[in-house]
Amino acid sequence: MASSSVFTSYIVLSLVMALAISGFNFKGAEAARAFFVFGDSLVDNGNNNYLATTARADAPPYGIDYPTRRPTGRFSNGLNIPDFISQELGSESTLPYLSPELNGERLLVGANFASAGIGILNDTGVQFVNIIRITRQLEYFQEYQQRVSALVGDEKTKELVNGALVLITCGGNDFVNNYYLVPNSARSRQFALPDYVTYVISEYKKVLRRLYDLGARRVVVTGTGPLGCVPAELALRGRNGECSEELQRASALYNPQLVEMIKQLNKEVGSDVFVAANTQLMHDDFVTNPQAYGFITSKVACCGQGPFNGLGLCTVVSNLCPNRHEFAFWDPFHPSEKANRLIVQQIMSGTSKYMHPMNLSTILALDSKKY
């Protein structure tokens, strides 16, 4: 036993010395567990900046409240959900996978693979042309692991991935930018809404299972928000400022089925790998009682034009509120920085009403004993 321990220590010491000689700060890179992000514009940290697509947020006034006061590709006035989770992990924000800065020891922090406009289905967001569909995001995750293996070896890479936290956020676009994108869309002709929801959930299960097969062991899966209540849908489909009934019906069908699918998937893998975050209820809190959270409105976007500032894109010529912290929505579709912070607070410490089977604080406490 003693000789085995000495041999193991020798191997580890040799690896650390080799990395130190190459200028690699291994200890600093492992200060916090790695964090990986997959999904759509709610969690994209800037991958679409590197793509020829209209689904991008790289121009003012996006980023007006970010520390640099410049647009970053986040669909927010400032920080987004992954940024606040990174803070809770005690880590710097993950870089977009396509960023040329993501190399060396920064790879060990994790990576953000998300791309605005994507959905669970590959035909979602076709109007945006060049976006990183979820299947491609998973391929990039495989490629990422190969890059890290070249840096620290296969075993250390496996440990890093198995011990990481993963966030995946997609599904909303499969309704907004697919089923309901135009009247009589191809998918709405193919499926009645309940059948479409069942189909999307079945496809999502394949995505999550693939994540598991690629080594993910702690995955926070967010549901959709109240799709019919975002300013864009109030402007396009709502009546007299009321939420769109049809899109609300889609959310009401989708989110409970997502939770049930996650329960089933956890049974199949034999562990609570997947954690459901009920972001619809988290948003509903703001929508039904914005004043309780310090907002003056949850109907009007801070940045936009037309009714409820819900039409078109947020641009330099849009209406722009001076008091961003008083608006639940930054633009026609996306929460403000303050709303993102409140959502992460619920992900961290919310009750079983919001998080199933446990919240992120519980996960981190449990995992601290394992890793």
UniProtKB/TrEMBL annotation:
Q: Which GO terms describe its molecular function?
A: hydrolase activity, acting on ester bonds
User: Which superkingdom, per the lineage?
Assistant: Eukaryota
Q: Which InterPro entries match?
A: GDSL, GDSL_Est/Lipase, SGNH_hydro_sf, SGNH_plant_lipase-like
Cite a single GO BP annotation.
Answer: lipid catabolic process
Q: Where are the transmembrane segments?
A: 6-26
User: A Pfam family name for this chain?
Assistant: Lipase_GDSL
Keywords recorded for this protein, A-Z: Hydrolase, Lipid degradation, Lipid metabolism, Membrane, Transmembrane, Transmembrane helix
SUPFAM superfamilies registered for this protein in UniProt: SGNH hydrolase (SSF52266)
Q: Which family does it belong to?
A: Belongs to the 'GDSL' lipolytic enzyme family.
The molecule here is called GDSL esterase/lipase
Task: Give the originating organism.
Answer: Glycine soja (Wild soybean)
